[in-house]
Write a structure and sequence with these properties.
Elements lengths: L2 H28 L5 H12 L2 H6 L2 H24 L4 H29 L12
């Protein structure tokens, strides 16, 4: 799979996740389940890597997985405790798990294409 294909898949999956969770949390805020301020607090961390994900920055793809872990915890908890929103919780969890696999693969593949990465220590430096 090429880095361009991975980029398109990861970017579209991330945008779908942002739209899905924004809709969910705003709906929860409007119907009174959560306060609107609490709902906005849940959305903000998801927006931190937005610019880098859209631009295809491999460094952003590498660290954005840490933020996705928070939302995976939310999705899996919702799968366990909910009876009414089980479809939403499963979709959220599966989408995030796919991104948790895709993001590091894209970061690695694109980083190698750009020549990024950790430099090896030379033997003559001791």
């Amino acid at each position: 799979m090429t880095s361009n294909t991975l980029f398109k898949l990861c970017r579209s999956g991330y945008i779908a996740l942002v739209l899905l969770l924004t809709g969910w949390f705003i709906q929860q805020g409007l119907n009174g389940t959560y306060s609107l301020a609490f709902s906005l607090i849940w959305i903000v961390p998801l927006l931190f890597p937005l610019k880098g994900v859209i631009q295809g920055n491999p460094y952003t793809y590498a660290w954005a997985s840490f933020i996705l872990c928070l939302y995976l915890l939310h999705g899996l908890t919702l799968v366990y405790i909910t009876e009414t929103a089980i479809i939403f919780a499963v979709i959220e969890s599966v989408l995030i798990m796919a991104l948790l696999v895709g993001f590091p693969f894209y970061a690695r593949k694109r980083g190698r294409e750009l020549g990024l990465g950790l430099k090896k220590k030379s033997k003559d430096n001791g």
